[in-house]
Design goal:
The chain has helices at residues 4-10, 12-33, 35-54, 67-93, 98-110, 113-143, 149-159, 165-173, 176-187, 189-201, 207-231, 240-243, 251-261, 267-281, 296-311, 313-332, 338-366. By secondary structure, it is mostly helical. Helix 1 packs across helix 2, helix 9 (176-187) crosses helix 16 (313-332) and helix 11 runs antiparallel to helix 15 (296-311). The longest helix is centred in the middle third of the chain and has 31 residues, at 113-143. The model is unreliable at 371-375 (pLDDT under 50).
């Protein structure tokens, strides 16, 4: 960015005109670079509008629920990134005065207009996606009532040689303190998802990998979280007794979780009860919408693992370990059938592979002389 000397040399108005042109160019470039994610988001939003009108569910639709919450999450995440950057600068440079050094580096080396607008456009897509997804999720049982829970229960047993997956995990996870720790890791999922997405939103090292992650992220929510979830409408083990007539086959698991809650707080129980009450009352809010197959917790955790392995082995192992915790936690806490996670991993891997192939092909075409893909 021009300093005060350059400003005096150019004059105020020419300098402002040049700065305005540079900012506008960076913004338009960011929009152009994200035409793929924006097209997906627009199609998703328009589909949601038609979906609500076709099934007469307008009163269950709201696109403003994540407004204030989104701002709070944005500020919290940016604050975390700033703290991490300060720690990294202190360990690497060991400056005498940390904050002036950090601000200087941010201004000179890190926060370019191109990087800023690339991050802003990607993050805007993220929050608009959540707003649309919450509408689809809320309407799933109203369009396709829960009907596949008995099928997934039997499928779980068939795959695991006649045993319930949660029972296989009990010898290791069936201790109140361990259950509490699993619940903690499960509950911070959204925060980690946001941190990783913001990291990629502002990333500059590998533009192709960044775009592959962003597009795959959006497609997972659209294709897995909305389309597949509607076709495979089901409620999950924790709601089995409330949804499926007859004996509640997951009552022993829920009894254990309530006993563990007497020793350590198991937050999943309160969330599950709130979701069930809001489902019965047809309440519209941030904590609404029950859907279990496929698991978005597992899908995005696995997507982060796929990203991690492309970055480095340590990051790959870290995200893979966290994904394993999410898979086990989804079963142990009664949120999901085991097959939910398996299907999510398969579908997410397919989306990641296809997206990578398309982006790789576009990158090769862009390097050809005279290509329409060239910027």
């Amino acid at each position: 960015m021009p300093d005060s000397t350059q400003t005096r040399q150019l004059g105020v108005f020419p300098y402002l005109a040049e700065a305005g042109h540079r900012i506008a160019t960076a913004f338009l470039g960011a929009v152009q670079a994200h035409r793929g994610p924006l097209a997906i988001l627009i199609f998703y939003a328009v589909s949601c509008v038609f979906h609500t009108r076709i099934f007469g569910l307008e009163r269950f639709s709201s696109f403003s629920l994540y407004g204030v919450t989104g701002v709070h999450l944005l500020l919290l995440t940016l604050a975390c990134f700033f703290i991490i950057y300060c720690i990294r600068t202190q360990l690497r440079d060991r400056p005498r005065r940390l904050l002036p050094q950090v601000m200087t580096r941010l201004n000179q080396d890190v926060l370019t207009w191109e990087r800023f607008f690339n991050g802003v456009v990607a993050i805007a897509c993220f929050y608009l996606l959540l707003a649309v997804f919450s509408n689809f999720k809320r309407m799933i049982p109203l369009v396709v009532p829960f009907h596949l829970d008995p099928v997934f229960f039997e499928l779980d047993r068939a795959i695991h040689f006649g045993a319930d997956p949660w029972r296989l995990l009990q010898p290791v996870l069936g201790h109140p303190l361990i259950t509490f720790m699993v619940n903690f890791l499960y509950n911070i999922w959204l925060f980690i998802v946001i941190m990783v997405f913001y990291w990629q939103a502002f990333a500059t090292e590998n533009a192709g990998l960044r775009m592959q992650y962003i597009i795959s992220f959006l497609l997972c929510w659209v294709l897995i979280g909305s389309v597949a979830a509607t076709l495979l409408s089901s409620a999950g083990p924790c709601y089995y007794g409330a949804i499926v007539p007859g004996r509640d086959v997951y009552a022993p698991l829920m009894d254990y979780l309530h006993r563990a809650n007497e020793s350590y707080p198991i937050w999943a129980l309160d969330m599950q009860q709130t979701l069930l009450e809001n489902y019965r009352q047809r309440h519209i809010g941030l904590v609404t919408g029950i859907t279990v197959m496929p698991s978005m917790h597992v899908s995005i955790a696995w997507l982060m693992a796929l990203l991690g392995w492309r970055i480095s082995r340590p990051v790959g192992w870290l995200f893979s370990a966290y994904c394993a915790c999410i898979v086990l936690g989804s079963i142990h806490l009664g949120w999901h059938y085991a097959v939910d996670g398996y299907v999510s991993i398969i579908l997410t891997s397919a989306i990641w592979f296809v997206t990578g192939r398309i982006i790789g092909r576009q990158a090769r075409q862009a390097r050809r002389p005279g290509s329409i893909f060239a910027a």
